[in-house]
# Entry
Amino acid sequence: MLPFVLAVTFAAAAAAAPSITSHFTVQLIRRCPPGAACAPSDVVREMEREAERIWLPLGVALDWVQLSSADTPRPTSAPDLVVLFEEHPHPVVEGSGQHNLVLGRLHQPATACEAGVAHLWVAHIRRQIEAVYVNGVPLVSAPTRFAHVLLARALGRTLAHEIGHYLLGSGHAPHGLMRAQFAPRELIEAIGTYDLDDANRRTLAARQLERTAHQCVVANGSVGNLSQP
# Structure
């Protein structure tokens, strides 16, 4: 879970991409209520690209399936992670308050071969970054196109963090992508580095090997990655 809280800026050295890349399927379901000002499709796609940019150098390629809440799911390979893209303008989230806005949360699967489920609360992420000043102007007053670029960046980094919880477990690291707390500016700055520390890199490599050795065959004959308890 990634909460809203002020934290110091970090920088982590990027490492070379692993020689073997595993594929990780993310099913994105947009939940936008009638009458809400929902994120444009280009913001959603750029969010996906930002998450891809973070995970590919770490040896994980993200494959996307996108549905709206009104869609009937199509037969497909079982996703590793289902992401509920919550676009209600005033979400009520357990554990969230004025000084602790929950941006994202992951629910680990109940059994080894089920998908994880993550929530991203778009309104909370907007609220976190809108108070940041860019060139002396609050982001809330910035031109729409520029504000969309920064919102997508913040959404992508939040999503990448929740994907990390699925791949690595519920713990946090002192630095990098899996740290518990981010300052608002850290989610939108162009030079931010979201890496894994050595301990998490070892955990990721071990779990990739375990998923390769213990794949779960689903009913339609496709193969899904083994989820971790």
Summary: DSSP finds four helices and ten strands in the chain. The longest helix spans residues 144-168. Strands lie at 2-3, 22-31, 60-68, 81-86, 102-107, 116-121, 133-134, 137-138, 216-217, 223-224.
